[in-house]
Amino acid sequence: MASQAIEVEKKYDIGPDAEVPALAEIPGVTRVGEPHVDTLEAVYFDTQSHTLASRDITLRRRTGGVDAGWHLKLTAEGPGFDEESGDAAGGSGSEPRRRRELHAPLGQPGVVPDSLLAHVLAYLRGEDAAPVVRLKTQRTTYALYGEDGVHLADLADDRVSAELLGAAGGAGDAAAPEGEARTRQWREWELELVHGSPELFPAAEEILAAAGALPAKHGSKLAKVLALPARESGAAAGPKSPGKKGPVSDLLTAYLAEQISEILAHDPGVRLEEPEAVHDLRSATRRARSALAAYRRLYSAVAGRRLRDELKWLGRVLGTPRDAEVMLARLRGHTAELHPGLASAVKDRLDDELGNRLNTAYRKLQKALLSERYFRLLDDLEAFRDHPPVRPEGAAPARKAAVKLVAKAAKRLERAARTAKRTHRGAEHETALHQVRKDAKRLRHVAESVEPVHGKHATKIATAARRQQQILGDFHDSVVARDLLAKLAAAPDVPEAVASAYVTLHTRQVQLAADAEVDYWKERKKSRKVLRGKVI
Q1: DSSP secondary-structure letter at 272?
Q2: Which CATH architecture has domain 249-532?
Q3: Which of 323, 387, 424, 509 could covalently link to 481 via disulfide, CB atoms 3.0 to 4.6 Å apart?
Q4: Backbone conformation region of residue 81, classed left if phi is above 0, alpha if psi is from -120 to 50, else beta
Q5: What pLDDT digit, counting tens, does each position of 271-306 carry?
Q6: Could you tell me if 510 and 461 are in contact, meaning their C-beta atoms sit under 8 angstroms apart?
Q7: Domain at 3-233: CATH architecture
Q8: Contact predicate 448/507, CB 8 Å
């Protein structure tokens, strides 16, 4: 497993003959350690078209220094990044950059460790990552200390020699004058926090600027040597924030962008079998599909339908292991209510039955996440986000059009609830309640998507719909568990005591389903004013 840390740093362009200033004069710095010199050599991996670098992601294998090994640096758009913990990363500029850095042992020179590769497969999309750049750096590090000897930060004075490798010329060669060498040299400074606070950066600004340091024009050494423009070396800007007077199409574009980010964020967790990753990826997939369905009349029918169909496929692939995972956890919990001696035997049988389902489904999911179909879906989602096929209706003012979208979803939910109330007990009734759950989920997602223009009113609707969805989710899980237990109890090879325990658990699920339905009708009555009145 890769270790990880949050890197907070700021880079500066500096002339070859500049002198390092008196760093102890930086406010808050009381002492500067003796300079330490390291010789570093790093090989950067990417595709020929610089797929990773264009997203401000760097993957390298570095020797020399205290942290020799494989390093993967991810932007604020990257998987698992806690955006509340700091500033979003940018390609260049005056703000410090905060990125998540994953580290793995040196291993083999040309073999990217699986623990790091899992984090970039959704970006590589079937392409191979190969060496594109070799950097040799002579680094002189100055440790900055504050009161009580706290190690605040390090200033690294880097003299860099870079070489393009193989067919890595790509954007770099295209941007360079004809005949220019595939090597270049430069000098830069990096001020990186250790235990200090971000206030150190503005405190150091005047002293470093006086020495000739300017905010770096590129976000990384790799972007600099590849000559990627600043707008490409940082994370994609994404769609603009929807405004009340802007077009309603902006609402879907922004919401879809959030779900794409979530899909890319949780993809590595599924590959690495991290807890809740399948659930999180499935939720983002469902949100994207719900929103595309609700806004479908505003966009090209062909493009929207294809995306919905492919998201449905992905949701189904994710749903099989997730459902087995939920059912196993549910029944394990209820098994604990049985007599201890019997509970163990029942638990073992459930683990065999559902554990095998879970493992088989997970293998199919892993295969799907490596398929061309999945990678094409990611491409199509990003293409829709970046160049949405909007119809004229999508130009309607967002605030007014959003009201209609939410009202339509609310009416759909109300119709489903009335249908469920009219149906008789049994499979028909359970199917009707399951439809209510799906329609509550759609209303929730539509309400979430219009929050930028309707704020707390939309949030109130989303919350009410979510409560109904969750209660009916418990109802559905009880029904599925009930049917599974009935099937297991009827199997010919089940010992009588175990079969009796299955019947006990079956009865428990029947009661839980009945309780959940009562809770639903109470919740529906309580939220009726929100969902049936003036919707927004």
Answers
A1: T
A2: Alpha solenoid (1.40)
A3: 509
A4: beta
A5: 999 989 999 999 999 999 999 999 999 999 999 999
A6: no
A7: Beta Barrel (2.40)
A8: no
